[in-house]
Amino acid sequence: MTWRTLTADGEKHAAYADDEWLRSGLAAAREVLGDDVARVVQRHAVLVLQPDCVAGRVAHRCVDLVRRNGFEPVHTVRFHFGPELTAGIWHYQSTISTPASLAIADHVCGKSDSLLVLLRDTTPHPVIPASLRLSDLKGRSTPAKRTARHLRTVLGAPTVLVVLVHTPDEPIDVVRESTVLLGPDVRDLFARMAAPAPTDAADVLAGRIDALHAEVDPHDLDLAAASRRLGDLVPDAMRRGDAKLDWGRFTADLVRAGVDPTGWDALLVGSAHVEHDRPGVPRLVDRVSVESWLAGEGVLLPPFR
Asked: With contact defined as beta carbons under 8 Å apart, do 131 and 164 qualify?
């Protein structure tokens, strides 16, 4: 198995060389899938329905949109996206993130349980891996870099950290990130990739979403409305002019006023107004383009016949 069947990015391949999650995930994948690891993984994508997606009540719509774009649910796992998991998932990207940005991301991901959804690409003649096609459909975290066709735009993801969904970009990331999120249970995920999709997979997923809705209070995830609500409660904390928000001072002001600093209103305002990136610090791993796979930098294997 050449590494170019898993990623089109040589720098990413080098950065992951000693990654414990990738090493463990590939070992598990080989145990389950044998020589067909790349071929099988290339046909699958992982969609994480985050707590903001649940609170915003857009998870059912999200699933409907991805199904209309040729992805079918195969398996769903409920899990808690705690700080140890967020650190693992974004280990190579978070080197540029400020402490405030990391703290808000942890609070967003940890607000409730999430759902990991294994999807199978039903495109008859795929030209890129399923994971990259889903990632391209998802859109960027920064709202200004999204267009009307992107999933996050359609669903109304309001800020750079309240983004509703997460997807691994390439097959190599599917293996690595699934291992981060599931640990030893990732073997079952690989086995599901090789098996026919259960006829009730979509119904099971819908039921899991409904179960979370029954446990989690809804929220409008409206940045402007959140700003008004907090402005009424803590007007001094909201007066910042053009300066970036000091997350530590802001949350302290909220606590003194009896407002939950980890509530959705605070997280929305914080994610919109804190400084996210540390200047001059490069990402260890960046996004891979669709064009790189189309140009042959990644090797797409023919589907099973």
From this structure: no
The pLDDT of residue 287 is 83
> Token match 């293996």: residue?
175
Degrees, nearest 5: CA angle 283-171-110: 60
Please give the pLDDT value at position 238: 78
Q: Which two tokens stand for residue 18?
A: 């000693």
Please report the DSSP string for 172-226 in residue order. Answer: HHHHHHHHHHHGGGHHHHHHHHHSPPPTTHHHHHHHHHHHHHHHS------HHHH
Q: pLDDT-derived band of residue 241, with 50, 70 and 90 as boundaries?
A: low
Going along the chain from its start, the domains and CATH numbers come out as 6-217 (3.30.70.141), 223-273 (no CATH)
Distances in whole angstroms, Cα of residue 105 to Cα of each of 51, 59, 109, 142, 169: 11, 19, 6, 14, 19
104/208 Cα distance (integer angstroms): 26
Question: Which of 66, 112, 81, 122 lies closest to 209 in space, CA to CA?
Answer: 112
Q: How far is it, in rounded angstroms, from Cα 234 to Cα 258?
A: 10
Q: Is 183 exposed, middle or buried (0-12, 13-18, 19+ CB in 10 A)?
A: middle
Closest CA to 174 of 117, 107, 112: 117
The neighbour count for residue 238, using CB atoms within 10 Å, is 17
Q: What is the pLDDT of residues 164-190, one digit of tens each?
A: 999 999 999 999 999 999 999 999 999
| Closest residue by Cα to residue 101 from 221, 212, 230, 267 | 267
